[in-house]
Design a protein that fits this description.
Blueprint (H helix, E strand, L loop, with lengths): L6 H6 L3 H23 L8 H21 L1 H6 L1 H17 L12 H23 L1 H6 L9 H40 L6 H30 L1 H5 L1
Length: about 230
Amino acid sequence: MEPIFTYLGAIFGHGQMLFVTHLILVAIIVLAIAKMATKSLRAVPNGTQNVMEAYVGGVVSMGIDVLGEENARKYLPLIAALGMFIFVSNMMGVIPGFESPTSNINITLTLASVVFFYYNYEGIKKNGVVKYFAHFAGPVKALAPLMFPIEIVSHLSRIISLSFRLFGSIKGDDMFLYVLLMLTPWILPLPGFFLLTVMGILQTFVFMILTFVYLAGAIAVDSEHE
């Protein structure tokens, strides 16, 4: 199968460099949006600042339902940065001639690993090593030898579920768009573009809310047992 045409691929070739260039492009877009939103802050926001303040407020509101306001604001930088990166990556794949970095398992696996190590770090930091891993054994001591390995496998599987859910969805969207444009290159693909945009937003939301949920489970060991 011949490589799918991309503008950056025509310049850099369709090897590993193509993935890297799209990744760099996403980083540049995210930084440009952040710069535009903060270059002239106003009490009454407009333009990019207004959009970004609405986005940040939405992330905090999402986190309040899971973690409470204090923790939602504490973890806002991580969740908001992940959301921005994933959203821009997903939307890039909707534009013909570009490829989404999140359609590559290497990047989604990296994102999932960051979430995995961070929420475990926060859990250990807040509760201590012994107390944090003790809750893996469950409330019934007699079942601890059974529950502990099950919990370990369950937590490790989160890396797979987070990475493959995002990768599979976006890769499938890219292939769907490729086939759609081959069959009906004009006008008719517009509903498909709308569907892919909705799916990209949905996958961003799912990744963000799951990160909040994993953080909540890691830092709220006492309330979980109660």
